Amino acid sequence: MKDKLITVNSLSGGKTSSYIAANYPADYNVFALVRTNDKSCLFPDKKLRQIVSDKIGTEFIGTLEDDMIIHTMLDLEQYIGSKIDWLAADAFEDIIAKKGNYIPNKVSRYCTTELKIRPIQKYWLDNFNEGVEMRIGFRANEQNRAKSMISKLNIDGFTEDKMIVGSKNNRNIWKLKAWRKPTFPLITDGIFKDTITEYWRDKSVRFAELNNCTGCFWRNPLLLKKMYDKHTNKLDWFAEQEVKCKGTWRSDIAYYDIKKAFSQIELSFDDFDECDSGYCGY
Fold first, then answer.
1. Which residue has the higher pLDDT, 41 or 165?
2. Where are the beta strands (DSSP E) in the chain?
């Protein structure tokens, strides 16, 4: 292990991780995009679709995140003046199919692992295969989240995970790898949400009102209804997976029922905190 570790900023497309990219330059910046092959979610700009396809190395049809995230990451790359490496797993529906048409939920939350963590691990294996320092976007009021992550580290302070390192006789070969040492610069420097919000107020980077998957099952049903009104095609994708797979994202309400519910309630995105907003937890 080198005395000075390679630094990596793991970006989500939100203001917090983007703040880290802008204020804590790293050797590498990585972003994992959640994508779908469903043409009802087609990203409308053909030129940008091709740019994203070139970046991820496979055809890009659409994302189940807010389309604004494409603009965010392209804007951010220009703003920080450093390359962002775009990653992508298989399309979400293909991952569900590989899991035996079992939809992820709060008990079996494999979506974060498969859509975000696995692509970054593969990127790490392909490019480094030795421990790196990875900045994590926990803010100063999120020390409990940092402590939870720290409690799972090995004795040297690294995350250890089983990764696919090859294959033999059509079977994956797995190996335990100590791959990242998480650091929390915003906690160290006492950076809260208000500082981050103010920082981006006059900058040339566009952000979605909420990042992460539009139909994330961690979100409050009332918020999912608001997302349904704004991103009907994407939330219909989530609802159709329930029908196709004969399962549910949530135990309390089906997504097509969310579409029909709460029509008398007027809400703003500001009515919800981040735990209601699909806070990914990665």
1. 41
2. 6-11, 28-33, 35-36, 62-63, 85-88, 132-135, 159-168, 171-183
